[in-house]
Design brief:
single chain; about 250 residues; alpha/beta; 3-stranded parallel sheet; two-stranded parallel ribbon; globular; binds flavin mononucleotide; binds iron/sulfur cluster
C-alpha cells in the first residue's frame, strides 16, 4: 500500500482483492485509509479484508464498509486475527499504557498465538478460494444495531481526537543511540530525519503510530513518553528492517 500512495488513482484489476492490515484504535492505520480513498474497483471483483489485532478488534468492519461504500464497493469477507501486540501504547491516552507489556511478549505466548493464527489462516484461505461471503446487508454482523450506531457516530470523532493527542506521541532516544539511522530508514511516514547523528521526529509530519522505529532500533535506544523500559520490543522474526524500509519505495 505504501508504495502506491503517490498515485492519484489506484486501479485494481485482479479478480480477487484482499486488504490486509493491522487494526489501530478499532480503525485503519492512516496510510490504509489513504490507500482505500484512491482505489478504483471493477465490477464483479471479490473483495476480502483480513486484519490483525491484539485482542480488541472492535467493529472495524463497519468502518471499513463505510470507507469502501464511498468507492462504490462492498466487502465480501472479513476476518480478524489476534496477534502479538506491537506496542505498550496504541493510540491510547498515557494512562492506558501497559507497563507490564514486555512480560506479555514471551516466547510461550507468541508460539501459542502463532499456532492459532496458522489454524485460522487455513479457514481464511478456504473461504477466499471459494469466494465465500460473511459480511454485507444479509450477514449476522449487520444485525448488531448498537455496534452499528456507535460506529457510525463515534468512530471518526474519537479517532481524530486521539490521533490529535498522539500527534505529540513523545518518542525520544537515550544515550545508547549509536546514530546508525535505521529508525529513519524504517519510518513509513518519513517523520524521522537524522540530524547531527541523532533521529529527529519532525513535528510537521504525521506519525503513523506503527512503532517500527521503537521496535527495530538495535540498541533499544528509543523510548516513548511514559514507557521508559529498555526491555520489551517486538517485531515478527520473519520480517527484516530492510523489508519494512523497502515498502515505501514508490512504484513508477
Ligand atoms: C497505534 C496502535 C493502535 C492499536 N489499536 C488496537 C486496537 O484498537 N485494537 C487491537 O486489538 N489492537 C490494537 N493495536 C495492536 C495491533 O493491532 C497489533 O499489535 C497488530 O498486530 C500490529 O501489527 P503491525 O506490527 O503490523 O503494525 C494497536 C497498535 C497500535 C500501534
Ligand atoms: S535506530 Fe536506534 S541507534 Fe540507530 S539511530 Fe535510530 S535510535 Fe539511534
Ligand atoms: S511510529 Fe516511528 S516509524 Fe512509525 S511512523 Fe511514527 S515515527 Fe515513523
Amino acid at each position: 500500500m505504501l508504495s502506491l500512495l503517490n498515485k492519484e488513482a489506484i486501479e485494481l484489476k485482479a479478480d480477487i482483492i484482499g486488504l490486509v492490515f493491522p487494526i489501530y484504535l478499532s480503525s485503519t492505520p492512516i496510510p490504509v485509509r489513504e490507500f482505500i480513498k484512491k482505489i478504483h474497483f471493477k465490477p464483479g471483483q471479490y473483495l476480502f479484508a483480513v486484519t490483525t489485532n491484539c485482542g480488541y478488534p472492535g467493529k472495524l468492519e463497519y468502518y471499513l464498509e463505510k470507507l469502501l461504500a464511498k468507492r462504490g464497493k462492498g466487502l465480501d469477507f472479513y476476518y480478524t486475527l489476534k496477534m502479538v501486540s506491537n506496542s505498550p501504547k496504541g493510540l491510547q491516552p498515557s494512562f492506558m499504557i501497559v507497563q507490564n507489556w514486555a512480560s506479555t511478549i514471551t516466547e510461550k505466548n507468541i508460539s501459542a498465538l502463532e499456532e492459532n493464527v496458522q489454524k485460522e489462516l487455513d479457514i481464511i484461505i478456504k473461504a477466499i478460494t471459494n469466494k465465500e461471503k460473511n459480511i454485507g446487508k444479509d450477514s449476522p454482523k449487520h444485525k448488531n444495531a448498537v455496534a452499528r450506531v456507535i460506529n457510525k457516530t463515534l468512530q471518526l470523532p474519537l479517532q481524530w481526537y486521539i490521533e490529535g493527542i498522539n500527534a505529540k506521541i513523545g518518542f525520544y532516544t537515550d544515550s545508547t543511540c549509536t546514530g546508525c539511522g535505521l529508525c529513519e530508514s524504517v519510518c513509513p511516514s518519513k517523520k524521522i530525519k537524522m540530524n547531527n547523528g541523532k533521529p529527529l521526529w519532525q513535528e510537521d509530519i504525521r506519525c503513523y503510530y506503527c512503532y517500527a522505529c521503537f521496535n527495530f532500533c538495535p540498541e533499544q535506544a528509543i523510548l516513548v513518553k511514559n514507557y521508559t523500559h529498555k526491555d520489551g520490543r517486538y517485531y515478527y522474526p520473519g520480517i527484516t528492517a530492510k523489508d519494512i524500509a523497502e515498502q515505501k519505495i514508490q512504484e513508477k
